[in-house]
Predict the structure.
Amino acid sequence: MIQDPSDLPNPVTQAAFRRQAWLEIYLPLGFALLIVGVVVVLLARSGVGDASSWADAALVVLILPLLILGLLVLVGLAFLAYGLFQLGGLIPGPARQVQEVFYRAQFDSRRATDLLVSPVIAVRGAVAALRAARRQVSSIFLNEDGHDGNG
């Protein structure tokens, strides 16, 4: 299969990338390993510590990154708590204004609803009063069994 020449990697860019990777990754890593190796050899020759103390030191080295990460999380949470505390001081004024707007809207909507419904309630109330009055008046003329005295 023939490849498009534009798909082939640029040799100049590849060489620059390899050189940069060597200088930024492999060289510092090699120096760090060399320093650690020299320190380990010097400490082993001096007879410092036994296996338990080396295990303790290794455990500390393993725990240290997690400790730093945990410290960063703790500092972040402290900043968040402080920010929320500061924000809590700023919120009551605008929140009160919003609450007053909603109270006003509630009052206006109830007043409008009362104005719209009051004629219907008045008419139904009057009809109910007339029916009750009619029953009251008709109950005077009815016997105990619910029939008038003529039948």
